Amino acid sequence: MRLPLPDGDFRAYLFDCDGTITDSMPAHYRAWTTALGEWGASFPEDLFYAWGGRTVAEIIEDLNEQQGLAMPVATVASRREALFQESLGEMQAVPGVLAHIEEAYQRVPFAVVSGSTRESVTASLTALGLLDRFPVLVCAGDYAKPKPDPEAYLTAAHLLSVPPADCLVFEDTDLGVQAAEAAGMAAVRVPPPWLR
User: Fold this and answer.
1) How confident is the model over 141-165, as pLDDT tens digits?
2) Any idea what the CATH number is for the domain that residue 190 is in?
C-alpha cells in the first residue's frame, strides 16, 4: 500500500533512510543494545525511537552523560556499525515507501537525508538494490546541525538545485518531520513498523 501524499507538484523527493526506505530500525536497535551492553550502558527502546534521526556520536555522548559512563565514542560507534552490517542480509524495504520510489524514479530527482553515517546508508541501500536511485546522499558528517535543524534537508535541496518549497520529505521520526517543516518542505509521515 502506497502512503498518501499531500497535494502539490513536487520537484524532488527527499527520504530519510532508516525506518523510512529501509525497515532497519529493529536491526539498528539490536546492534545498539549489543554494542552498548558491552560497556554496561542501557538504551530503552522508547528512547531509541524518540531519538530517531540523531547522529550516532550524539547518542553515545548523551548516554555517557545520562548514565555516568565514559564510553569511547569512536569505538562504540564502530562496533555498533559492524553489528548492524552483519544484519544487512535480512534487510527489507518499507513497502509503502518503495512503491513511491518505483513510481517516481526518473520522474523527479531523489536524495537521502540521514543521521546515519554514509557507510551505513550506502550499505543499506546497496543491500536493497536501491543505491543507484539516489544521486545525492546527505549523511552524518555532511552538516553541522542534526535534525530537527533544517540544515540537512536544505543541503539536499541545494545539491538537487530544487527550491525547498518544491521538495517532499518522507520521514519516520518526529525530529525528521520537524526538520522538514523548518526547511519549508511538505512531509509524509512513515508509520512505525507496528502500524504498517
Assistant:
1) 999 999 999 999 999 999 999 999 9
2) 3.40.50.1000
- pLDDT of the residue at 53: 79
Tell whether 34 and 109 lie within a shared domain. no
pTM across the whole model: 0.88
**Boundary-marking domain end, from 33, 65, 88:** 88
The three state secondary structure string of the chain is CCCCCCCCCCCEEEECCECCCECCHHHHHHHHHHHHHCCCCCCCHHHHHHCCCCCHHHHHHHHHHHHCCCCCHHHHHHHHHHHHHHCHHHCCECHHHHHHHHHHECCECEEEECCCCHHHHHHHHHHCCCHHHCCEEECCCCCCCCCCCCHHHHHHHHHHCCCHHHEEEEECCHHHHHHHHHCCCEEEECCCHHHC
**Which one of 69, 88, 107 terminates a domain?**
88
pLDDT above 60 for 123:
yes
Cα separation, 103 vs 24, in Å, equals: 22
pLDDT in tens, 36-56: 999 999 999 999 988 887 889
Let me know if residue 110 belongs to a domain. yes
For residue 51, the enclosing domain spans 25-88
